[in-house]
Amino acid sequence: MSAVQPGRRRNAAATREAILDAAVVEFTEQGYARAGVRQIAERAGVTAMMINRYFGQKEGLFAEAVDRSFAPPTVVGDDRRDLARDIARRLAARTAPGAERLDPFLLMLRSAADPEAAAILRRGVETHVGARLTGLLDGPDAEVRAELMLALAAGTWLLRSVVGTGALADADADLLADLLADMLEPVGRGTGAAPDDRDDGVRGGTAE
Fold first, then answer.
1. Which end of the chain is least crowded, N or C, by CB within 10 Å?
2. Report field, pTM of the whole predicted structure over 0.90
């Protein structure tokens, strides 16, 4: 009996991995709403009943696919030294023509319109890249600043790689990295106008 059990565990683990790998591809290509359990099962070479056995409903499978996609570092690394410029260089390179596509962003774009999927995506961002970036930032409001940096990265990716707006799509990678770093660095450092200065600006730039 003991000689059989390890083999069963390995087969179960391999089946689960095959399903999860297929789900990541299907959700990335089709989005949450259009991706079907049967299509995922066919891609993985299993039955739909096997997916229900290992992951339950489609929502549970999507949640694990999001975790699988968002956990590895892509644009945000793990080194706080020269953080903003590192993010800027990675983003410029990963959104350049011909670069390997950024699947986590694509998965998010194609699934975010579904409320059920959006809640799972939100947890995925906050748990993985959001938490990692927040942990690399010093100073107050680190979580807000981290998500603002991610918003800039996502917007750059969307216009440069998906929409393909002319100026961004054709921009030199080094130039783009420099411009992005100039935008990211103040947010990453937590520097900028003090609250009183911002208030004065709203009031027309005159001190009271």
1. N
2. no
